[in-house]
Design brief:
With 469 residues, this protein is mostly beta strands. The protein has no helices and 35 strands. The chain has strands spanning 15-16, 29-30, 36-38, 42-51, 60-67, 70-74, 86-89, 96-100, 109-113, 117-121, 133-136, 143-147, 156-161, 164-168, 180-182, 187-194, 203-211, 214-220, 232-237, 244-250, 259-264, 271-275, 287-290, 295-301, 310-315, 318-322, 334-337, 346-348, 357-361, 369-373, 392-395, 402-420, 425-440, 447-455, 458-467. Strands 31, 32, 33, 34 and 35 form a 5-stranded antiparallel beta sheet that branches. Strands 3-30-29-28 form a 4-stranded antiparallel beta sheet, with no helix packed on it.
């Protein structure tokens, strides 16, 4: 299903939580002061997936809920806001969830799992689903995915759980073959599916918890028919309190070999681990990057539109972003606080402005709420940020025809630059001296803008500007 991109200007009153806004930093609005959405259930939200489930060309979300024995469909409106939830009854605590077109009807379907069973719900294309079909599977599931692992153009199911990796091959009509268990008896926290040995066949790598002091990355070579060879250890760690959790993959350094990005949340670790692939199913000794607190599930995306993939990790009371560089290295993390600790994230463009946003579901029991962290990063800026960050006062704001901008202290030969939320500069006022100016709307359409005060080729303060008709 194709998502039609449209241009929206978001008028939600969020507060900016990143003081620095430049091509090197990340910027997300603070969800704590904006709309918070309910999943219509109780208990924690254990996982979340996204897609256009009601054929309106906007992203929606579906949550897996810990209490109530249900999942929740929550429509999105394409402007960064969400609608009222609709709960769908199943059974047991739902730990993980994924979405794909499982029966080839061009409508998104759902696969979710409780402690013993995988449920498949075929979508009707209007945000509703047919009664579920169930399949026996592993216990204590942590993650579930739906990808075509045997190259027959039919999505399959891969489940990481407390007693192995379970694989169910799709039959093309929304039903699946019985599960095959790999890594039986071992606790698997996460699994990633990619071609790690450059034979055009998908393989699996899992984060496997062996004992309280030992974890390993397990490589399962794909045979091309949906089965996998016996596992081999990529890297084993045997120090106290080690706990590798989430895993993802990407060609980080652009050498044509797929690399591994792993979250280690052990008490003595708290880091992201990067394993460069050799292209033959083996990997280099890891490079470590510190994180904020207890990183768990991990993702990669271009969070600042510089055409280089960054790392996003769910951890602590929010998420952190590590900026990617073109040489395969990453900068120190920037942490963004949410309303509570999440179990999962969705990273997609929810307000259709060309930048990825972060959906954060609450993992706290009794507060199953969902926050939307809209991306306010401005790309293409031509001016570095000065270390000193002074303030300015804009009144009225929002405004219709004219507004006054008052600076904290007098400026000399300064410049005002105004950008759209996409990072396009649309207005510039030069040779400003004194402590205030009057700004005319002129040709600016209604919407949200970012305003920069520049002096001596340095941005000395930034703020948000709202124009209304």
């Amino acid at each position: 299903m194709t998502l039609v991109k449209k241009t929206f200007i978001c008028l939600i009153p969020f507060i900016l939580i990143s003081a620095k806004i430049d091509a090197q930093s990340f910027c997300f609005y603070d969800p704590n002061t904006g709309p918070i959405y309910s999943n219509g259930s109780s208990g924690a939200i254990y996982d979340v997936t996204s897609g256009d489930f009601n054929a309106d060309d906007h992203l929606d979300i579906v949550t897996a809920n810990s209490v109530g024995e249900n999942i929740s469909f929550i429509p999105g409106y394409g402007n960064g806001t969400l609608g009222s939830p609709d709960t769908i009854s199943l059974s047991g605590t739902l730990f993980c969830i994924a979405s794909a077109d499982l029966n080839g009807d061009e409508q998104l379907d759902i696969v979710t799992a409780n402690n013993t069973t995988i449920f498949v719900l075929i979508g009707n294309g209007d945000g509703t689903f047919q009664p579920s079909t169930s399949y026996p599977a592993g216990g204590a599931p942590s993650r579930i995915y739906s990808e075509d692992i045997n190259n027959d153009s039919i999505p399959d199911i891969i489940e990481a759980c407390g007693n192995g990796v379970f694989v169910l091959l799709g039959l093309g009509n929304g039903s699946f073959s019985p599960a095959t268990n790999y890594l039986a008896g071992l606790t698997v926290n996460d699994v990633v599916i990619a071609d790690f040995d450059n034979d055009t066949i998908l393989d699996l790598v899992s984060t496997t918890h062996i004992t309280a002091t030992n974890s390993e990355l397990s490589f399962l070579k794909g045979n091309g028919n949906g089965t996998f060879a016996s596992s081999s250890s990529i890297f084993s760690m045997t120090y106290p309190n080690n706990f590798i959790a989430g895993i993802t993959s990407n060609d980080v350094d652009g050498d044509g070999a797929t690399d591994l990005i792993v979250a280690n949340s052990g008490n003595s670790s708290q880091r992201v681990e990067l394993y460069f692939g050799n292209g033959d199913g083996t990997f280099s000794t890891p490079v470590f990057y510190s994180t904020h607190l207890s990183p768990f599930y991990i993702y990669h995306t271009d969070a600042n539109n510089d055409l280089i993939e960054d790392i996003v990790v769910e951890e602590g009371n929010g998420f952190s972003v590590l900026k990617g560089n073109s040489n395969g290295t990453f900068d120190a993390y920037e942490h963004f606080t949410a309303m509570s600790s999440p179990n999962s994230l969705v990273i997609e463009d929810f307000n259709e402005d060309g930048k990825v946003d972060v959906i954060i579901p609450s993992a706290y029991f009794g507060s199953p709420l969902i926050a939307v962290n809209l991306n306010c990063n401005i790309t293409g800026l031509d001016t570095p940020v000065q270390d000193e960050n002074k303030s300015m006062n804009i009144f009225p704001n929002p405004f219709n025809s004219y507004t006054t901008i008052e600076f904290e202290s007098p400026v000399s030969n300064a410049e005002i630059k105004i950008y759209t939320v996409e990072g396009r500069k649309i207005k510039s006022i030069k040779h400003i001296s004194g402590q205030s100016i009057q700004l005319s709307r002129d040709y600016m359409p209604s919407g949200v803008y970012f305003i920069h005060l520049v002096q001596n080729n340095k941005i000395i303060t930034t703020d948000k500007l709202v124009v209304m008709d």
